[in-house]
Task: structure prediction
Amino acid sequence: MKLTLKKDLLLGVATASAQIEGGDKNHNWARFSEDGKIADGSSILRADDHYNRWREDIDLMAEMGIQIYRFGIEWSRIEPERGVISKNAIEHYREEISYMKAKGILPLLTIHHFTHPLWFEDMGGFTSKESVDIFMDYVKVVIDSFGDLVNEYITINEPNVYCTNSLFYGTWPPEKKSLSALVKAFSNMTACHVKAYEYIHQKRREMGYDDTKVSFANHLRIFAPKKEKNVIHKICAKLTDWLFQGAITRAMMTGKCAFPVMRRKGVKKGRYYDFIGVNYYSRSTVSGIADGVRENCYKNDLGWEIYHEGLIELAQKLYKKYNAPIWVTENGTCDNYDKFRARFIYDQLKLISETENEIVRYYHWSFTDNFEWKEGESARFGIVHIDYETQKRTVKNSGKLYSSIIGNGGVTDEAYAEFVEPSVYKK
Result:
């Protein structure tokens, strides 16, 4: 064996509802893409047609041996108008969840993953004073509807990415550039998570369950100074780290709030996580309060640095501070022609398995190629190829490797020779 997985490490995949389902015109990203704001001109209304092909996709997951699956449900389908709940949408998701469980796949349900109904967007989204109460009304519907089927939940995906891109840089809907809006959303989303964490546990206890696990999916990266001995670079790295991820991490995990997160009513100091959810992709090399990429490093097809050690650094730091199991809720790379993804998976799992850390789950992003937000269909992250014209699914070599790793508990010599050796990074 070239690699033996660490004991008890579960391997799975992750997706987001809007990025794969297609067909829903009622959320913020649908309007954004229909307004021609996507880099390659594609529309989220097509995506992978998963809403109709979910059984085919889950069958493929089962064939590949996928053990765990992080998936999303679409708020705009479940509550198309404020206070109006779609029984059809709920039944659809109940059927899908029941099917994946019958196939032996453990579900991790994401409640909010960047998209929400147009009626919520038009009233200000998470900058609205009503947003916490509105979100909690939705959470109650979710747990009432799926609490008997699902015991593991992500409340909110990457609040820092959502807030920064949507309300500070203004590159995502609703294209605002406002520090005050950023602070409002950070603060309200923290309250949403804290209250949702408490409610999900309370409601499932009332339902007779004691196996509930709740957290949020936290986008984290390494912020490194461009020049280690440059004092300005070092200060900028620390400040960027705090503003982008440090403050929101502490607030959502513990209820301790400091700028740019303000305390909302009902948010008390406590522990609001049962596991530490980490979405990790890259390292930022900075010389100012902005993102940056290290010179002469390996990069993916979006120009992000490939830096596997960053995940281990973060995992060790987070475990020491928060003392909970680490679930890698997203990790993957944009590789449009599957030239280096197999090596990426091998190198990341090798580090996870051979260094000291508390990582117990790994969800590869993503299962299929999908609609990659602002990049549209042009950025491919999947271990399964999607032909968007025909919607044909084809397992890539990286997917065959991943399936082999699950089946064999690691990377065999044969799998290494067939899939990893030909897989080469680029600069």
Q: What stands out?
A: The mean pLDDT is 97.
